[in-house]
Amino acid sequence: MGGMEAHSLTSALDTRTVVSLEPVRRPEVLGSMAGRRRIWTLEQKLAIVGEMARCGNIAEFSRQHDIRTSLLYTWRRELRYALEAGQATSHAEPMFVRWARLL
Questions:
Q1: How confident is the model at residue 8 (pLDDT cuts 50, 70, 90)?
Q2: In this structure, is residue 68 part of a structural domain?
Q3: Residue 5: which residues within 8 A CB-CB, separation 6 or more?
Q4: How many CB atoms lie within 10 A of CB 4?
Q5: Is the residue at 101 inside a domain?
Q6: Distance, CA of 6 to CA of 28 (rounded, Å)
Q7: Cα separation of 46 and 81, whole Å?
Q8: DSSP character for 93?
Q9: Which of 21, 34, 49, 85 pairs as cysteine with 30 (C-beta 3.0–4.6 A)?
Q10: What is the largest CA-CA distance in the chain?
């Protein structure tokens, strides 16, 4: 390619409008607790999920409690499954199946 063609191709592919000389900084999402694992008791999980049910903004709630939103949704789903499993077993009546010999 000649000098003119190479310049026009480079400028056509260059979509940047402003080039910053400052390095890109990554925001710290989970400030003080980043990189640490915490152990939650069942009571703590139930209290947080119960409080989450009454809040309007889950993202803001998770930031206030320094918990990832995905973990909150996981706890809520696990609680729902546990409640459904408990209801299924408490309402179930014993069933007897009569066994018949076909031959």
A1: low
A2: yes
A3: none
A4: 8
A5: no
A6: 41
A7: 13
A8: P
A9: 34
A10: 92
Contact 73, 79 (CB under 8 A): no
Q: What angle do CA 89, 95, 99 make, to 5 degrees?
A: 145
pLDDT for 18? 56
Distance CA 83, CA 54 (A): 18
Residue among 88, 78, 82, 69 at smallest CA distance from 29: 69
Phi/psi of residue 59, nearest 5 degrees: -65, -45
Residue 67 belongs to some domain of the structure = yes
Q: Which domain holds residue 70?
A: 40-88
How many domains is the chain built from? 1
pLDDT band of 33, cuts 50, 70, 90? low
In this structure, is residue 14 part of a structural domain? no
The one-letter amino acid code at 83 reads L
CA 30, CA 67: separation in Å to the nearest integer? Answer: 8
